[in-house]
Structures are given as structure tokens and as C-alpha cells.
Amino acid sequence: MIPGSFDYHRPATVQEAARLVASLGEDARVVAGGHSLIPMMKLRMAAPAHLIDLQGVEGLAGIAVSGGEVRIGAMTTQHMLIEDAALAQAAPLVREAALQIADPQVRYMGTIGGNLANGDPGNDMPGLMQCLDAAFTLVGPEGARQVRAREFYFGAYDTARAEDEILSEIAFSGHAGAGYAYEKQKRKIGDYATAAAAVLLRMEGGRCAAASVAMTNLADRPIFSQAAADALVGSPLDAAALDAAVAAMQGDIAPGADTRGPVEFKRHVAGVMLRRAVARAASRA
Ligand code: FAD
């Protein structure tokens, strides 16, 4: 299908982009890599009268790692996340997850900002950022504010971002020395997750000293499972702890039946992903 007609805007600064979004109102949408929005426009599920292209906005793309802290501009592509050596060292979980998104063609265009702002529960970056306890910077007509990833998602395509705000930056602490894993089950290469688990953990004296767990595509939003993490902490990550973590996670997710399978199947796959992610993270801790 062919999208409806629209006016095209190409601002040079994030402030100019925010002013355009505010003045054009609900008829306007920003476009980043276009790999979620353009398909929706082609299907006429979105028909913005104005497209505000962020590709020409200065300073929105790039990765900075300093003192173990990571800052990523919203227009940074998934390919850039994979290629950045400093990011791979400070937060290897990001590279591991980005490599499992779609295929190289999509990753050359798709941005971390678009993936996070979209609010699609199938996207991989939102759960990942909840696991990392990232903070998002939103720029609007009144200036900038920060929202934590764990408080950003309300439901499918429903987030804490106001319509006149632009996501400009993502920040989180690196996890050097922690065990990490992103486990994703999908029907085929290029597909969204049937279920995915992001896990970070630290070990001390053979016991889990800290853990973070987030699940993808198992509810209408990414699920940060504090209960699953609590079940791991203090344990030697034995079978009983894994069973308890999976049971706790099952209490937090709410998958729906769709073309990826019935609810029971998704719950089963979610458990398998979490067990695998904890085991692999532990092997790296
Ligand atoms: P766009 O499509 O340009 O924008 C998406 C939405 O976010 C729009 O509503 C736009 O207005 C808004 N937006 C974009 N940037 C900003 C910003 N900075 N501030 C505020 N709002 C903004 N994703 C996965 O996570 N996992 C997958 O397995 C996966 N598989 C895919 C397979 C295919 C075949 C395709 C086409 C896409 C797939 N995707 C997948 C989605 C892909 O990663 C998208 O590129 C990404 O989700 C959106 O990023 P984008 O830069 O293309 O955003």
C-alpha cells in the first residue's frame, strides 16, 4: 500500500523539532528510522498530515561512555549500538540484544529512540532499558525532563511521553563485571519475540548478590519483574531459586494469544527464556 499524503519537515535542532511538534499538534509525527512508522503509514494504520524528520537534527546520534556511565542519543541506530567498542565493553547486554533485532537492513535504519518511543510491546529495547534501569530525556516546549524506563510504559503505544515531547537521550550505568544475557525466542530471523528475557546479575561468594529481570512481548508493555529478581538474590542460583524466579515472573506477565501462539505456550517459552538467561548470565558473572 501507499501512505497518505503528508507535508515533510526537516528541522536542524531538537528545539526546532519540538516547536514544530507543538505547533502542528496531533496531526504531526516525528520520523526517525521510519521502520515502524512507515509500515504503519503504508497500512493506513497511521496517517499523519505532517512528518517531522529527525535525521537532520544535530547532536541526536552518538554514544558517549565516561566513568562507567553511558549516554546514547535517540537517533543512534541499532547498527551503531552493535559496532561501538566502548559500549560493548561498558554494557555488553545492549550489543547482545541489538544483534537479535530484525535483520541488518532494519538495524541500519532503526534507531534506539524510535524503538523506545514507539511503545510497541514487541520491541526489544524497552525491556532491555528497564533491566538496565535507564533514564530517558524528553524535550518539549517547556524544556527537558527525565523519566525512568521502568515508569515510561503504560500500555501498548501508551507511554509517559507527551505528544509534544521528543525523546532525545537514553542514559544508564554500565554493568562491567556483572553477568548478563538477552535470550529471545522468535519464529524466524527478523521476527519479533515470542518471548524474551533480559537478565543482569552479580555474584558474591557463590550467591547472587544483585539481580535485574525484564521480559519482552509478554504483556501490553515491557515487564520489569522485581519479584523474579528478588527470588534470585541471596540464592546460589540453584534449581529451587530458578523455579521461584520463574513462578514470580509468571505472576507479573500477562501474555495474550495471537499468531505467535496461545497463552500457555507463551508462558512456557517465557519460563524457558528466563531460565536460559539466568544460566548464561551466571556463567559470565
Ligand atoms: P520510526 O519508525 O521512525 O518511529 C516509530 C515511532 O516512534 C513513531 O511513532 C515516531 O513518531 C516515534 N519516534 C521515533 N523517534 C522518536 C523520538 N526520538 N522521540 C519521540 N518519538 C519518536 N524491533 C525490535 O525491537 N525487534 C525486532 O525483532 C524487530 N523486528 C523488525 C522486523 C521488521 C521487518 C521491521 C520493519 C521492523 C522491526 N523492528 C523490530 C522495529 C525496528 O527496530 C524499528 O526500526 C524500531 O522499532 C523503530 O525505530 P525507528 O527509528 O525506525 O522509528
Structural commentary:
- GO terms for molecular function: FAD binding; oxidoreductase activity.
- With 285 residues, the protein is of the alpha+beta class.
- It is 34% helix and 27% strand.
- The protein has a 5-stranded antiparallel beta sheet. Strands 11-12-13-14 form a 4-stranded antiparallel beta sheet, sandwiched between helices. A 3-stranded parallel beta sheet has the order 1-3-2, with helices on one face.
- β13 (207-216) and β14 (223-224) form a beta hairpin.
- The chain is globular, with a radius of gyration of 19 Å.
- The mean pLDDT is 96.
- The structure holds flavin-adenine dinucleotide (FAD).
State the distance separating the first and last CA atoms: 49 Å
User: Mind telling me the C-alpha Rg?
Assistant: 19 Å
What number is the mean pLDDT? 96
Could you please say which CATH topology of the largest domain applies here? Uridine Diphospho-n-acetylenolpyruvylglucosamine Reductase, domain 3
Shape: globular
Please tally the helical runs, counting DSSP H or I stretches of 4 or more residues: 11
User: From the 3D coordinates, which CATH architecture of the largest domain would you assign?
Assistant: 2-Layer Sandwich
Helix percentage range: 25-40%
List the bound ligands. flavin-adenine dinucleotide
Unreliable sequence segments: none
Which structural class do you get from the secondary structure elements? Answer: alpha+beta
- How many β-strands, per DSSP? 14
As a percent range, the share of strand residues is 25-35%
In the residues, how many domains can be counted? 3
